[in-house]
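(Deposited chain)
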Amino acid sequence: MSPLLRRRRPPRKFSAHNFELRPGKWSLPGAPRIGAEPISASYLRTFAQLCPPPARVADLGCLEGGYSVLLARAGYEVVGIEGQPENFAVCQWVAEQVELSNLRFVQDDVRNIGDHGGFDGVLCAGLLYHLDRPVEFLRTLGEVTRRLLIVSANHATREGREVEVFAPLLAAELTEHEGRLGRWFGEQPGPWSSLGNERSFWLEKDDLLRTLIAAGFPSVFQQFDWLADAETSRRLAERMVSVFVALKEPAQAPTAARNSS
């Protein structure tokens, strides 16, 4: 697109993602830069190590498109899925600014990810704890993900530390839902809210791990490569946020090809 045809301003102000739209122009000046601050840098490292480009990847609930842009600039074929109309309008504006042929945004409920084909890697950051049927959703991700799934999410705890931190809490006691333990929370309106459900179920951490394994990922790890950054570690611990790396075995070469090497 010609620079003269670019819309100069986004449909709304950015709320979270600070990244370079084009040389010298940042989406949220002064905020931590995606790809440089510890958490987003860890996502990119994990993708590069375990699911290198030009893999096809999905960024779920992509909000303002920051992670999608960074993955596309790293050489991936990226589909950013965003359901909130206002957020999707920002993503469309971002696409106009960055002009990346390997980046596509679609407006859809992430639960419909199967309608958009299979993916080598999936980034599910800040999304799972906004869903009312997280177990069913992780099963769906197991069906469409060929290699790598990164899940970054708040989770429930056995001792109930999240009860005092987050609101609106709907059930203080651990409750079984979809065959797993967790707690119910209410959803509040806004750009980061759920789509189509007024309450969300936070899986208890161990049950979240069991669900990932049952969804078809035999290897599940917790990521900790930001521990040197004390502020990041403190903030994640206080908010009961964990980052999980779920892997499937890489596709094996045909037997004849392996024997001939």
